[in-house]
Every structure is written in C-alpha cells, then in structure tokens.
Amino acid sequence: MNNYIMTFIVGGAICVIGQILMDTTKLTPARILVVFVTGGVILGALNIYDVVIKYGKAGGSIPLPGFGCSLAKSVMKEVDKVGLIGAFTGGIKGTAGGITAAIFFGYIMALLFNPKTKG
C-alpha cells in the first residue's frame, strides 16, 4: 500500500510542477516537456533522479523526467560499452521499447475512438 501512496505523491508532484509552470510562466506545453526531459537527463546523469525512482517507483519513472533519466542511463551504458558512438546509439536502444509501445497503443486508441484535431 505504501508503494501506491509514494507513487501517487511523486507522480502528482511532477504534475503539479508542470501545472504551476503552465499557470505562472509564458512557457508553452512543448517547452515544459523539453524542460522535464532535459531535467531528467541531467538528474539521471548525476544519479540524483535514481532517488526519485527509488521512492516514487512508477510515479518517478513513467513521467517525462523518467524518460530523460532513461535516456541518460542508456547513453552512459552504451558509451562505456562501445565508446563515443554510444552517445548516438544508447538513447535509441534504451528507450526503443517505450517509444514503440507509445506509438502502438496510440494507434490502437485512434482506431477505437474517433480522434479530432483541436480547432
């Protein structure tokens, strides 16, 4: 039960930060997305985001900073393994499963429901 509460708290805190940024700054949602992913990369590379994931579980690993942390960890692992070329291939290898799932399930939802563009 404690894991669910911590997941909710950590994931909710990340969402609250995003909402505060949208409400109090002129940043667009796309720029906030970039801030979250970049922040996750930096915190992941410094091994700081690992603490967030340790306590927040999915609440820390699923949102955008978790994706950034995954990118950083994958790149560092691949650079250690194959050298400089790993800086270009590590992120792709490490996050391919998540990206593929997002595209696949997004496509399935588009087939099941009637998506409309904002207008």
UniProtKB/TrEMBL annotation:
Segments crossing the lipid bilayer: 6-22, 29-49, 94-113
Domain of life from the UniProt record: Bacteria
UniProtKB keywords: Membrane, Transmembrane, Transmembrane helix
Entry keyword Transmembrane helix: yes
NCBIfam families: spore_V_AE (TIGR02839)
Protein name, per record: Stage V sporulation protein AE
Record organism: Clostridium tagluense
Designated gene of the protein: spoVAC1
